[in-house]
Predict the structure.
Amino acid sequence: MGIFILKRLAEFIPVLLAIVTLTFFLVRLAPGGPFDTEKRVSPEVLAQLEAHYDMDKPLHRQYFQYLKGLVRLDFGPSYKKPARTVGQWLLLRLPVSIELGLYGLLFALGLGLSAGILASFKPNSLLDHSVMTIAMMGICIPAFVLGPVLVLVFALWTDWLPVMGWISPAHKILPSITLGAGYAAYIARMARGGMLETLVQDFIRTARAKGMKESRVILRHGLRSGIQPVVAFLGPAVAGLLTGSFVVETIFVVPGLGREFVESAFNRDYTMISGAVLVYALLVMSLNLLSDIALAVLDPRIREQ
Amino acid sequence: MIVFMNQIKSWQYPLRIASILVVSLLCGCFSNLAREANVLQIGNGAEVQELDPHIVSGVTEHRVLSALFEGLTDCDSTTLEPLPAAAKAWEVSPDGLFYRFILRESAQWSNGDPVTARDFVYAWKRILSPALASEYAYMLYCLENGRDFNEGRISDFSAVGVKAEDDLTLAVTLERPTPYFLAMQNHFAWYPVHRATIEKHGRMDERGTQWTRPGEMVSNGPFLLHSWLPNELLSVRKNPRYWDAASVQLSGIDYHPIDNLQTEDRAFRSGLIQLTSTIPLQRVEGYRKKNPAVLNLLPYYGSYFYRINVTRPPFDQQAVRKAFALSLDREELVTNVLKGGETAAFSYVPPGAGDYSCSYPLSFDVEEARRLLASAGYPQGKGFPTVDILYNTSESHRIVAETIQRMWRENLGVEVRLLNQDWKVYLSALNTLDYDLARSAWIGDVADPVNFLECFQSDVGNNRTGWSSEDYDRLLEEAYTSSDEVKRLALLEEAEKLLLEECPVIPIYFYTWKFLKAPELQGIAPNILGYIRWKDLFLAEEKG
């Protein structure tokens, strides 16, 4: 197991290097630069700006300079938001996105698992059908519709929750629900499917035949195998929750990394784009690794492989 | 039965979640109540990128900086006439080239240091320093040798036209008469900065140092920086050391950075903010019907127009350009499509700045347009090549482009295609003249027509049409050096007439300053620059 993890970690380095290199050159290939504005700056000022940020040097030298910085964890200055360096911006934004993603995940797991397991008790019953219909709706309704509808109901009509912001726990409820809803629906469908498959298997019948309490049969034997699809889905889901929060962050004015990333792409803030891509890449890779480890822990068959 | 028992157990999860929700909900209600009294809450559009007046370039930053800093003069928010601010008095030489400002003895920095003439000299040297690479340094090109210093042709700042004669006397020499020089002084490019604070955190010409952080920043305006949580909230509070603190009525301002228009609208409806930065296009009609008291649509010094690339056929022919300009029903566009109080633009420079008006406007004349198009070799649009309208991706630009596409099809029989591009790709296409027709806009920095007209001089980076005219350049040069205001405006009008005749641009509409304002907020005066003088504002309920 230890060797497996080490091997996977060693794979990170070439992949990250490839991502850094691709991003570095691709963003510079896109038309337009960080200092293009509606009111055009004079060629003299443009030259001054480029000199200030070492952009007047040959591209390969800029690239090696950037790599050298990365080794020292220096992501460079932000061209459009000079008040902080890219590293400082990432440190400021990432925790917010992680917090939002975590709440979204908790909501998705809490609601998705309970709904899925509930529906699997009596397949094709009214309860099953209604839970699954709601889940299907959850998958179909995008965040940019769900968010404003939730705001309309819980903030504007009833005045129970704030419209936007990320200050008190109350501010965090609607964004977390909006972010988690789609995933809750997926998880519900997967949990139901997994449970249905498991509950007809021989080891469950054996457990029942031995006179084990039904709650124990389901929670101890059924759940362990039944939620495997959900666990496998968690890696990509968490990555999706963390990296896909742009819409939710925009609707609710959450100061997270998703907004920063998309804005930096629009602004051609080269260093900020590269920094954000690097952080996201690292996140996705680590989460996939974690999800593989979790699967191995749950399933002895995978462990043996 | 056993299954039923299990169902109850699994229901406990949602119950627990629900109880957590209720508790947090109560916290939320209390947190909403805890708003500070007499602090104005406003939506401020995009996030403030920096608070260094010599680095920033946007409207959102201007709104914060105009509360934190004060220039030599301020503007009356109705007439836009200069008012004494850091300078209590000034004299101007008859030729308009020399100004002497007498500073206020009582003006202080927020740390108690006096605001002196040397602070202004230092600040202007800083913004003009080539190494700082300020995007707004050109505002100071009207100073004698200002441009030469900024572009590195001279390195001795003492040759630039600004001197501190003593602590309280500032002498300024201009390159050429600039009638709006005084009115320009409340623009952030001209603000003084506190030398000791800047140099505590880095070199004079270093970008992005820590001096703009709360607790570090020293400023001289009616408010001072209280906190700055990027993308969350920026708060300023009343500056007790401000020389005119007695007439500042608000205790503070909270700027909420909300770049999503719909979210800002919802924040206003929920009462979270009392002033918005704009209004979503589709909401204007609803407010007009249901809540007109909060709706504000005021004339604004901004022009929405299409640029034409005159280097590409068929638009290299003046007749074709003019035909396109004459065949737009602008009134229909503003009343039936935009509906946001915009006015149809038959000239390029918006009205409202002093005595300037254009007496040779374009018209809506389909007959003449068809005749011109036929004279260029395209009768009823026959044989006209397919051309594109380029616009940056945005819902409102698309709606305008679609309407104009229909008008040209119906009135001229020509087919144009719509082409939308990401903002930077669009700018790049404009800069390299890789387009046929392109959506464009210009918002005046100062209330003077020259600010609009100088964009189309031959050697100017903002031209972006390939059009040049020696006559046009000559008229503007004459206007620059004229110290007779009536003659200057006549020259500018002559230049605009030439521009409208040649049509490298097609004026479409003039912007409105659109915002929602809660009834309790008082003191915002209509003016074409959208200037809010923060020290004039007050919240009626709390004042009474």
